[in-house]
Amino acid sequence: MEDSFQHKGLRRKLVEEIRHKGIHDEKVLEAISKVPRHLFMDSSFIKFAYRDQAFPIRAGQTISQPYTVAFQTQLLEVKPMHKVLEVGTGSGYQAAVLAEMGAKVYTIERQKELYLLSQTLLNALNYRIHFFYGDGYQGLPTYGPFDHIIITAAAPVIPDKLLDQLKTGGRLVVPLGGSNSQVMTLIEKQEDKSYKKTEHGLFVFVPMLGGKE
Length: 213
Ligand code: SAM
Known about the structure:
The protein has 213 residues and is of the alpha/beta class. It has a single domain, classed as Vaccinia Virus protein VP39 (Rossmann fold), CATH 3.40.50. Helices cover 29% and strands 25% of the residues. It is built from 6 helices and 9 strands, in the order H-H-E-E-H-E-H-E-H-E-E-H-E-E-E. Strands 5-4-3-6-7-8-9 form a 7-stranded mixed β-sheet. It binds S-adenosylmethionine (SAM). S-adenosylmethionine (SAM) binds next to strand 2, helix 4 and strand 4.
C-alpha cells in the first residue's frame, strides 16, 4: 500500500489538470491531492491511476473520472461534520474524498463484492466510513436525515425516499437520465420544504439498478 513521491507528484499534476477544467473549490482540490487513487484501481489499470479518466473495476462497474468526482463534490458544498449519504460505493474513492473533507460518510453499494472490497481497503487506509450493502433507492431511513446526498450512478428518476432523507437546506446531486448520457442535477431542499432544481451539464455514468446482488 505504497504512496510514493512519484504518486504524490502525479496527483499534484492531476489536481492542476482538473483545476484547469474548472474545479475551483480549494477544499475539494486538497482532498483530491490527498487520496491515493492508485490504491482504488483494478491491478491492470494502476499505471493509469492519475489520468483524468474513468476505469473499469470489479463487478462490471467503474471508478469515476477524478474531474467528475470533484465536480459532484463541489456541487455538494460539504463542510466538516456534515452527514453525507453516497449511493454507489464502487471502489470507495468518492467516499474517501468526502471523508478527507471532514464529512461523516455513509455509503451504500448493491454489489456485495464491491461492498466488501471497498470496506477492507478504506479501513486499512484508516478512513472512518459507514458501509452498507443494499439498495440505494431505499436510502438509509434509520440513519438520516442527511445534510447531503450524492448518487454516483445514472438514475432514471430522483428516488422519492432519498428526497425524504434530505435535511432542510440540504443538497442532493444526481446524474439524471437514461443510458447514453445524464444531466448532472442539483436539488436543494428549501425552508418551505419545496425543491429547487438546477442543471449542470452532461456526464456519463453506469446505470443505477434496483435491488442488490
Ligand atoms: N463512487 C464510486 C467510486 O468512487 O468508485 C463509483 C461508482 S460507479 C460509477 C456506480 C456504482 O453504483 C457501482 O458500484 C454500482 O454497483 C452502484 N450502484 C448501482 N445501483 C445502485 C443501487 N441501487 N444502490 C447502491 N449502489 C448502486
